[in-house]
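This section describes the prediction task in plain terms. A model, or a person checking by hand, is given the sequence of a single protein chain and must write out its three-dimensional structure as a string of tokens. No templates, partner chains or ligands are provided. The sample shown here is typical of the held-out split.
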Amino acid sequence: MIRISNHLFIDFLRLNNLATDVRNQELSKQMDDIIISLGGIQVGAISTGRGSEDGDPFGFPKTSMSYNFPESQLENLVREFKNKFL
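The expected answer:
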């Protein structure tokens, strides 16, 4: 198992101007469904290091969910995210 965090994927979408009309909270829910379906286990919420920035529900998230995730499923995770968001 490796540790992943969904804010990295949200950051990727925001940096590439993708899913711009979807709030972070909804993106997180959609990602949570994909991550868990591939064997990920929620560990807990973490700070993304942006605590001093103004919050923006369509920008870079200030908090994130982290997961223990099976390394063998990384390729499938990227494929699922690509199919869903790109």
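For orientation: The chain has one domain: 2-85.
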